[in-house]
Amino acid sequence: MHVVFTIVDEGAVPYFQWFAQKVKHEGEHKFSFVALATKKTEMLKIVERIGCDTYLIYFDNKNRKKSMISAFFKLFRLFKNIKPDIVQTNLFDDSLPGLIAARLAGVKKRIIVKQDTTFHYFFAPKWVKADRFNNWNATDLVPVSNEAKQFIIEKEKADVKKITMIHHGIPSELFTKSTEEYKQLLSKRYNLNEKIIIGTVSRLIEWKGYRYIINAAKKVIDIYPNAIFIFVGEGDQKEELIKLAEENDVINNITFTGWMDRKLIPSFYTILDVYAHAAIYEPFGFVIPEAMMNGAPVVSTPTGCALDAIRHKENGYLCKYKDPKSLAEGIIYTIEKGKEFKEKGKKTALEMYEFDVMYENYLNLYKK
């Protein structure tokens, strides 16, 4: 069985590497990887070293339409040449040209993983028709959470018979490597001694809901003056969020760290009293299983994998969308009573979001 993965990628795509390593270890199937990018990506270099075939298709995000047309012709020629059994696309920009090319090249199994579900609906509505076209053109649709599954059925009019819901997974051994050294480094760097620490890791963009965390912070700080909010990430909304924190008089209790070295992230999760997630209709949300696997008590909106994993007030706390009051109540509850979330949340995440579970689910889909 020969499976080809495609993705628009200017950086690294970790789970492609994990698939490559797993496939090479087992030796039963062949996986090839296609990156649509302006130059050879880190992902291609990594999976090449593992021993998988890789292909670069030129794609410029600044000229998307022209790049998609060009990519279609190149992908068509590639698929005709290598004759894969399955083509699996992962984001809209590779799915539109990739699925058409695969269909015309005679690839009978065309899978689209709905990783950017909801983006067009909320931020570029005119493109929803193209999402629906992709759904028609694919033979199989893979939403990565039950919320995403319901969304594509209701909003994108997806054919229920095509749908197989498969959660993303991460290798727990890679994402739980915390150390005392790194915990002490973080504590010293951000002055965290004797503080109640509420953390968030994601891009500083509207979709991630930081404004609701900032608006909730005042109520938390009124009860816990030693509370500190640590925002790990960068994004276009940063200046706006700093201004909002100043207006709400909570700026002294908020630290914007920028992007943090990946090796520090597991240790960061382990020192948190609360992991706060206020995203709005997120297809999955990798930070949720990462935080839970590292024992961080999670307060989240009912989105993506959080909704699937969290049992309210048992192994985490679910708050309302776009509701600072509900979010503040969840944070306060978790500070006071959420210690049991640590082990229960960790157990849940390891059962649901381990990479090997994801891998076996995809193999079952391919074989079917």
At CATH level 3, the topology of the largest domain is: Rossmann fold
**Number of helical segments with 4 or more residues:** 17
Structural class: alpha/beta
Anisotropy-based shape: globular
Read across the widest sheet, the strand sequence of neighbours is: 3-2-1-4-5-6
Query: What percent strand?
Result: 15-25%
Mean pLDDT: 95
Integer count of domains: 2
Number of strands: 12
Distance between the termini: 12 Å
Give the name of the CATH architecture of the largest domain. Answer: 3-Layer(aba) Sandwich
Give the C-alpha Rg.
Answer: 21 Å
Would you identify the regions where 5 or more consecutive residues have pLDDT less than 50? none
Question: How would a crystallographer describe the biggest sheet?
Answer: 6 strands, parallel
User: Looking at this structure, what is the CATH superfamily of the largest domain?
Assistant: Glycogen Phosphorylase B
